[in-house]
Amino acid sequence: MDIDFEKFRHLDGCNVLVKPARPDDQNAVGLRGTIRVHELPTNQGIVKIEIVVSYPERSDMNGRPAHEEIIPLSHTDVMRLLNSEIGDTRVYEFTLDDGGRSVP
Known about the structure:
Blueprint (H helix, E strand, L loop, with lengths): L4 H4 L6 E5 L11 E9 L7 E9 L11 E6 L2 H8 L8 E5 L9
Parallel strand pairs: 1-5
Antiparallel strand pairs: 1-2, 2-3, 3-4
């Protein structure tokens, strides 16, 4: 997605509640994720924005890192995300669409 890095840098590290498309499903729950914004190495100023959902319960005491699921965001997804800020808290909500994506 071609988005200006400086315009969206402030989102990096923000919390997001990732909700399923159909919350009426019996097993549907929201998960806490983190927004990751990083510059693509080949295009100065162009960024990739994604949501990272970590599963620390899959890590162990021997130093194995938590498992991560990455949810890539399209330009439309980013606009929806920006409109979902809860108050002025830098905390966002993101509901997955029915396009085959689900809460990991």
